[in-house]
Specification:
Strand content: 15-25%
CATH class of the largest domain: Alpha Beta
Structural class: alpha+beta
CATH superfamily of the largest domain: DNA ligase/mRNA capping enzyme
Number of domains: 6
CATH topology of the largest domain: D-amino Acid Aminotransferase, Chain A, domain 1
Helix content: 25-40%
Largest sheet: 7 strands, antiparallel
Shape: elongated
Radius of gyration: 31 Å
Number of strands: 24
Number of helices: 24
Low-confidence stretches: 61-67
Length: about 675
């Protein structure tokens, strides 16, 4: 508990300093992503340990402090901030919580503008006051600057007493124009449109604010009941009729799936918009439903903000640890402060090898930027040297295996170190885990922890031992957690795996350089493992997509593992390829495909298998080497990339026509 208390104090200090620097000094020192991460961690601790929650905690604040340059104004109705969601699961959870209250909501989706919130108050249709959100309770009077924004009406089309709320922002081209002038004058450049808008609206001289050409969208009506309005969509139309600028991209949706479609469309449009958006706001449309759902102490329960996945985010490199793979390769790994990258929480990332760490000049304790390579694998991009404090520790490559403590070796001309001890327990465990994995022999019931436990108990010391588990069934069942039903299932799945096609065995053996695709190429070309074992390096190299390094690895493996293959034959494991022999089609064979969007009449896996059976390859991204891009409904940015690179495009009709012709 004492450790948690210290962490709460540390997080409180970080967030308070960040609030002060951002809202008071207008000088952000950490990114929004870092701020969100620390705030979510503090909320989580306080939720689970209410005794650690303080009345002065940053989680009780909606925003930051109000500077004394402007008059302070108390909002008639608090300007609350929104909770954040980062992926589809969290959006579904938001929807589920509302449905559990007995509602069946429709939502309005809106662009989340990257600017600053404002309240506009009118008396008898004339602009009386403009106020910033401030801390949500008290804001700053910025009326003199609001009047310079041409998209904000000074007089409404109806003489109403009304308050509306929206976002003041700066367009991308405006920022470029301002920075060009500042560069010519030798002045520091404005960092981004959000900071530029915030700084502009706080100008004491309204003439200076006018030069910044700020813009505005209105998105909220605090007291709709005064005007007989029942839904948020009606309110948007009502405010537009009064003369306010309302974003035309707002949309009523009927389900969570339609929210996802809206997000996909917005993600594609985002780069071409004249302004910056950093997410999507999702609001319950019906005002009566909003009132019944109510608010938490911090957020409305009827709305949330989906944040676009950050392509690069910052976090702390807490440590560098080393792991041993099935081939004995030693890999340094980054231990990170947990951070959300593209919708998933990342706390580890591979650092590949010693050269990778040294070339990036990484030190333990660095603030580093993280991204997902190919949108999948977490990658450390760089250290932020300017954030160093002097307390960082240099990286030192280990000299011995972290598991068996035998010396590690690095071959001439290679970048990786290897544990060369064939009896290294970690190597053996990893090789067994790989063998039983889904893409290899696909033996259900043998997860990583089960394999490691069976290894430590002495039941499985090699992959051959797996197939003798049926003889050890009674002894295994003596241990806690191994009931007869679960053990029988494992044995049944092991027996079933004996009939797998050859490519699964080849991949499962863990031969260096042999992935699932290469395993299938070898299996389909040789059909029988005996023919493959007799193949020379030259014969292997003559096969498309098999290079010199791969060929050498295959030859060396079978020279050194003949006894293992013979043992597998005795066990009864299939050694022949059971798949279809690759066909030939001039439209498909040898071509590189990319698929984007939804194909309604066929699943991606089925498309992929059909194309690959004709020696085509499927890639995840469009490049100059791509031959054909298959485009379905709601395509992503890959479609735009295909157009830019002038690639051949097939729609669903063309795809099905070609696939139907394949025999």
């Amino acid at each position: 508990m004492e450790e948690l208390k210290k962490r709460v104090e540390e997080l409180t200090k970080i967030l308070n300093e960040a609030n002060y620097n951002y809202y008071v000094l207008d000088n952000p020192t950490i990114t929004d992503q870092e701020y969100d991460k620390y705030l979510r961690e503090l909320i989580n601790i306080e939720t689970n340990h209410k005794e650690l929650a303080s009345p002065t905690s940053p989680t009780n604040r909606v925003g930051g402090e109000v500077i004394d340059k402007f008059n302070k104004i108390v909002h008639a109705k608090p300007m609350m901030s929104l909770s954040n969601v980062f992926n589809e699961d969290e959006i579904r959870d938001f929807d589920l919580k509302i449905k559990k209250e007995g509602f069946n909501p429709k939502y309005v989706c809106e662009y989340k503008m990257d600017g600053l919130s404002v309240s506009l108050i009118y008396e008898k249709g004339k602009l009386l006051r403009g106020v910033t959100r401030g801390d949500g309770i008290t804001g700053e009077d910025i009326t003199h600057n609001v009047k310079t924004i041409k998209s904000i009406p000074l007089e409404l089309k109806k003489p109403l007493d009304i308050e509306v709320r929206g976002e003041i922002f700066m367009n991308k081209k405006t920022l470029e124009k301002i920075n060009k002038k500042r560069l010519e004058k030798g002045q520091p450049l404005l960092q981004n449109v959000r900071n530029a808008a915030a700084g502009s609206i706080r100008q004491l001289d309204s003439k200076e604010a006018a030069k910044r050409e700020l813009d505005n969208f209105i998105y909220y009506l605090p007291e709709p009941e005064k005007y007989g309005i029942k839904t948020h969509l009606e309110a948007l139309k009502f405010m537009e009729e009064l003369g306010f600028k309302v974003n035309s991209n707002n949309k009523l949706v009927n389900s969570v799936d339609e929210i996802f479609e809206y997000i996909k469309e917005a993600t594609v449009k985002r780069k071409s918009l004249p302004y910056e958006i950093d997410g999507i706001v999702i609001k319950v449309n019906d005002f009566d439903m909003q009132d019944k759902l109510g608010n938490t102490a911090k957020y409305p329960k009827w709305a949330t903000a989906y944040k676009f996945p950050a392509e690069e985010v910052l976090t702390k490199l807490k440590d560098i640890i080393f792991t041993v793979g099935r081939t004995g390769r030693i890999t340094p790994n980054a231990v990170l402060e947990p951070v959300i990258v593209m919708g998933s929480t990342i706390s580890r990332a591979t650092l590949h090898n010693e050269d990778y760490v040294l070339n990036k000049h990484l030190m333990i304790g660095d603030i580093v930027s993280i991204k997902k390579a190919g949108d999948v694998i977490p990658e450390v991009v760089e250290a932020k040297f300017e954030r160093r404090t002097g307390n960082e520790k240099p990286f030192v490559m280990i000299k011995e295996c972290p598991m068996c403590h035998k010396p590690i070796e690095k071959k001439v001309g290679q970048v990786d170190y290897y544990c060369v001890n064939p009896s290294c327990p970690k190597r053996n465990i990893e090789s067994i885990i790989h063998f039983v994995s889904r893409d290899a022999m696909n033996i259900e019931g043998l997860g990583d922890e089960i394999v490691e436990e069976l290894y430590n108990l002495g039941f499985v010391k090699s992959i051959e031992d797996l197939y003798s588990l049926k003889d050890k069934k009674e002894k295994i069942m003596e241990f806690d957690g191994y009931g007869e039903k679960s053990v029988n299932k494992i044995i049944e799945n092991l027996e079933k795996s004996k009939d797998n096609s050859l490519e699964r065995l080849l991949f499962g053996l863990g031969i260096k350089e042999i992935g699932t695709k290469t395993a299938k190429i070898l299996a389909s070309n040789f059909n029988d493992i005996d023919f493959l074992m007799q193949a020379t390096k030259e014969e292997l190299e003559s096969i498309k997509d098999i290079g010199s390094i791969t060929a050498t690895s295959v030859v060396e493996y079978f020279q050194n593992n003949k006894e293992l293959i013979e043992n597998f034959k005795k066990i009864g494991i299939n050694m022949k390829y059971k798949g279809k022999v690759a066909g030939v089609n001039e439209l498909v064979s040898g071509k590189k495909f990319v698929i984007t969007g939804t194909i309604s009449k066929m699943g991606r896996k089925e498309i992929k298998e059909k194309l690959e059976s004709y020696n085509a390859s499927i890639s995840e991204s469009v490049s100059k080497n791509t031959d054909i891009v298959i485009v379905g409904d709601n395509p992503g940015s890959k479609y735009q990339d295909a157009l830019k690179l002038n690639k051949v495009i097939w729609n669903e009709e063309k795809l099905l026509e070609v696939l139907n012709d394949l025999q």
